[in-house]
Amino acid sequence: MKHTEDFKREAVRIALSSGLSHARVAADPGVGKSSLGHWIARYRPTEAAF
User: What residue segments make up the domains of the chain, in order of their start?
Assistant: First the structure.
């Protein structure tokens, strides 16, 4: 199953803000931990440089 961009971004948001382990966040919707790690690397919010 291919996940939508919105799904991936939401998973990253939850992983970074929930305080749960990445393994736990990945397990809930049945996503692999390594997939979540890739999504975090790709979709992690960046701070704007001023």
Answer: 5-43
